[in-house]
Design goal:
The chain has 316 residues and is α+β, with helices and mostly antiparallel strands. It has helices at residues 2-27, 30-61, 81-102, 108-131, 135-152, 189-199, 222-225, 286-294, 296-315; strands at 155-161, 165-170, 175-178, 202-203, 208-220, 233-247, 250-264, 271-282. It contains 9 helices and 8 strands.
């Protein structure tokens, strides 16, 4: 309940700062600006505290969880403060350019105030519905992870990266990436662009990935520092074979391949692993995904069946 109360209070304060900042844009009143900053800072802190309450549930139940706890428990994997700042800055830059082209520089302060208010209203509506982690939902996600952990028995660490999904590292250094419900990833447009500019390679989009590195180098990732982790990527493929797995009475096709793989580090938030790896990956059928999206118990059952099969294929 405290989780929700903090969210409501924080969202109200964030909303109230927008008209005050709009008044500052128009009249340049310093008092309006100071009050707007106070409301915004207070609201942000309250929302952050609400997120930390949800994260505490994960840490309590899963002490081996390393990072990404505040992104579990929402419909989507969450927005960071940097995401919001980037959206506001980009929108204001576009508004400024449009006003310049249209010759309405004299009215730019009023336009800024109106656009800023609209953006804030959109944020205050969409964030609590789609992106905020709630304790009740977080507990359901934790129950799925605990089921997977109990099935694998040799889990060394667990993390969550927004662009990659759930990252599980086993005691033999096998890394499992889960992007199916309830670990869906939000599309990070900037991360995708950074991946093409900085990393090259091809994004690995499959929902379930199991990999064992023969030799991997660990390196610092600048996009991860900005909380825009680049999704898993393949740089070179050496060989590829197909494997069959029976799941819920149906045949699921997978791929076993040897590649140069690049993934977020499963234990260090600001780092990545890159090197030659043996990889097994697969996707799930739409009707299975729909059922997984509706039921955490069904998700746990499916993942507890297919992940051990993938790990076994990896070790053959």
């Amino acid at each position: 309940m405290l989780n929700i109360l903090l969210l409501i209070a924080g969202t109200i304060l964030v909303f109230l700062h927008a008209p005050l900042l709009g008044l500052f844009f128009v009249y340049l009143n310093v008092e309006d600006f100071c009050l707007a900053v106070l409301f915004l800072a207070s609201g942000t802190v309250l929302i952050w505290l609400s997120r930390r309450l949800s994260a505490s549930v994960v840490k309590k139940e899963l002490p081996e969880f390393r990072y990404g706890t505040t992104y579990l428990g929402g419909i989507f994997s969450g927005l960071s403060l940097l995401d919001v700042i980037a959206i506001y800055l980009f929108t204001m830059m576009v508004v400024a350019v449009v006003c310049l082209i249209e010759g309405k520089i004299n009215a730019i302060s009023e336009v800024f105030a109106g656009v800023y208010f609209i953006l804030t209203v959109i944020f205050c509506i969409t964030y609590p519905i789609f992106y905020h982690p709630y304790i009740s939902w977080t507990r359901e996600v934790v129950s799925v992870i605990k089921s997977i952990k109990a099935e694998l028995k040799v889990v060394r660490s667990i993390s969550y990266a927004r662009s990659a999904g759930l990252l599980i590292r086993l005691n033999d250094s096998t890394i499992i990436v889960v992007r199916s419900p309830p670990f869906e990833t939000s599309p990070l447009i900037l991360a995708g662009l950074l991946g093409r500019l900085l990393e090259h390679g091809e994004e690995l989009t499959q929902l379930l990935i199991a990999a064992t590195f023969k030799k991997a180098k660990e390196y610092f990732s600048k996009p991860s520092l900005a909380d825009w982790p680049i999704p898993p990527r393949v740089f070179k493929t050496f060989e590829k074979n197909y494997v069959e797995m029976e799941l819920d009475g149906e045949l699921v096709m997978g791929v076993k391949t040897r590649v140069i793989l690049d993934v977020p580090h499963p234990e260090k938030r600001l780092h990545r692993l890159q090197g030659e790896a043996l990889v097994v990956y697969t996707d799930l059928k739409r009707k299975i995904l729909k059922r997984m999206d509706k039921s955490a118990k069904y998700s746990a059952m499916i993942l507890c069946k297919i992940i051990p099969m993938m790990v076994n294929y990896l070790r053959e």
